[in-house]
């Protein structure tokens, strides 16, 4: 790992593999475990960087696939790189574009070289390869960049997943060779679908490459939630203990708590902002539709224990009024709260691990149950 | 005027009727001349109160017609009144609903009693009278409330306008009789269409009622902009010099400058937020469509002399990217800038009047020309 990056483990849970760490990047530290908000198009939807900072956000994601299509990485670089372009001075991470190419784009063709697809913007044919993904991410300039991987769909046969996992490993080696910037940490991604032995093999193989960080990818793609726990439990403990571990695309309470118990440090998910735009608040592990009639005259905050700007200044009745009126401010206020809520959830786990009270205080979330 | 309200004139222009004042309300002062942002549904679209405060906003408007339909004034009162409900602790003003009933609602029927119309929300028949408008505004709780008036369309015959102006005066007397709260100032509205003698007569008649403030209504309803200047010039000087004067619905540079030269103190307009939602920035008297290709790689702020959050933190290229991507944050950043821009325009005029440089520094805006 470049000396620009370090991961320090400060405390371990005595009963699980949970740990408290500090991940240092050129743009500041990330206190782990921690939820990371998603800023797909170089902004976390509806929020200014000032509002985002107030939620407790430390590391923020952005999407290579989306930024390549609009405005294009050259314009982001022209604006001084992703941090300066979007006004976020904290740590940032870009994904490789792989997941979006596989899940969003039309007319894609996968070969050993990479993926060819049609741009939904202008219909142009785009060829995304491991080298090209890294080149784009080097140009965008996030602190952490992700390897270009093949994310098999769910369900997929063992043979299909095995082939995708093997290709992901070959593509990772090409990503490592293509990577140009020492001020960016390249994370490898463990694939393997729901086949736990393939996951374990991939984790062991990737661990040997001594990368600055590791991700578990291809989860939360439609498989039953109990399988997410099994996948993480079969994977995370095999990754190097002195490197950060990131579970991609997961941001529900139970799945985060169980993953943290397996030694995962970082999470991201679009749920808090997507739900906000649907008028849904995440409160104490529950989801509330603010259009519900019971909120019309409820003059209490969403969560009276929450310190976010929304809960400190507005009532459920007011937010319900804004949602009913389809006022954009509703989505901003709910995004502030929902992101604050998920970050605070991971912060509370962090404090619990430091006090060795994790399994006691989070027992509710560590037992199997509904995804939430 | 209740002792809760006062208007102090601090300075007058030596060459025009322009003046600098301080309007005191139960929720703070308004330094005049000043542009007031519009928060139709108990929020200035896309902005939190914290962001609104940063624009320099002092007094904020909200619309009785809209709030009566959603969430209803009783819910606003249940939330502690308009200020507390929406989290704005500064001065507030509600209009009477008259203008919206005349311009927006369907199936309206005007009688001496008031206006009957069909609610666009639930089809219910609503009867809005001077008494009812004041009752709703008393319940909402803004610092300044407006008389319920009949706003004739443009064009309208002299006879039609004369009838509407006479009715507006009778309705004003009913509003005064109905008004219940000494912590709210009721402003009268001068109507009279484009007929300058009707305007003058109405202004003189209203002035005799010794109200805490006066508005000029029924302008910017489709008439040529040069007529706005004539109307204001024929009206404003006849209103009591020791009371604030408010030109309703006007927020363009030239029309504000010319009105200030006639002694107007306050302005409101939805243009800055509406244009923001169309991706348009107001810069130095001009309007820019941020989708224009020339902004794609323009890494300078909208206005390098502007101190607003948007100009201090983001480039034209970034905002252009957000507008192209239809990201809500674009509308927030443009609303912040556009409102800051109009408020600063009136602040600069204020400073110029204080230094008696108004006609010299604002000569460009004081001569007839394109509406802007």
Features:
homodimer, 372 residues, alpha/beta, TIM Barrel, 2 domains, eight-stranded parallel beta sheet, three-stranded antiparallel beta sheet, 40% helix
- Head-to-tail CA distance between termini of chain A: 35 Å
Sheet with most strands of chain A: 8 strands, parallel
State the helix count of chain A: 16
Protein chain pair with the most extensive contact, residues per chain? A-B, 39 and 39 residues
Strand order of the largest sheet of chain A: 4-14-13-12-11-10-6-5
CATH architecture of the largest domain in chain A: Alpha-Beta Barrel
The low-confidence parts of chain A are none
The amount of helix of chain A comes to 40-55%
Computed CA radius of gyration of chain A, to the nearest angstrom: 20 Å
CATH first level of the largest domain in chain A:
Alpha Beta
Query: How would you name the CATH homologous superfamily of the largest domain in chain A?
Result: Queuine tRNA-ribosyltransferase-like
CATH overall fold name of the largest domain in chain A: TIM Barrel
Strand content of chain A: 15-25%
**How many DSSP-defined strands of chain A?**
16
**Tally of individual domains of chain A:** 2
Structural class of chain A: alpha/beta
Mean pLDDT of chain A: 96
Q: What is the subunit arrangement here?
A: homodimer
Shape of chain A: globular
Active site (chains A, B): 95 (proton acceptor), 268 (nucleophile)
Region (RNA binding) (chains A, B): 249-255, 273-277
Binding site for Zn(2+) (chains A, B): 306, 308, 311, 337
Binding site for substrate (chains A, B): 95-99, 149, 191, 218
